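Q: Here's a chain of 164 amino acids. Please give me its 3D structure as tokens.
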Amino acid sequence: MEVEEYLRNKGMGYEHLTEGERKSISGFALIWTLFEAKLLDEDASAAKICEKSQEWVGGSGIDVTLIDDHLNYFKERYIENGEFGNRFNHLNLRKNDKEELVKEVLLGTENAQESKLACCLIIILRFRNNYFHGIKWAYQFQGQKENFERSCCLLTWCLDRYAD
């Protein structure tokens, strides 16, 4: 059975996605699993991301411009009039997702490079969890293309920079 055909025929919104939206969704799934396997020891968590971010920044360094670009995108997406907007709540940050760190970085009160990288990767972890646990189907992946594309950009940069 052809998966794309199946999803188009189920009437759950997939049929309304553009080819680019579909590619970003499947590309994210593939890149995330490679990232998790190669860089997070097949065990993704916010704690592991913080540990690795500190290790990576202290060792091989970081592309400050790339990280700031991604961070600015997330700030624009999740902060409205100086406060966390509705989209931030939809990240569904859990107790162990280092919510305070994410908030501090997004608000600019925490500016260490390893914290900025960790914040971006924790948000991407939430995209992954919301995607693989079905939450993104609730609104038929609307408005997710750029999230997935930016995620793939940062994940592939990390893979190229930090994977053995």
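Q: Can you summarize the key feature?
A: The mean pLDDT is 92.
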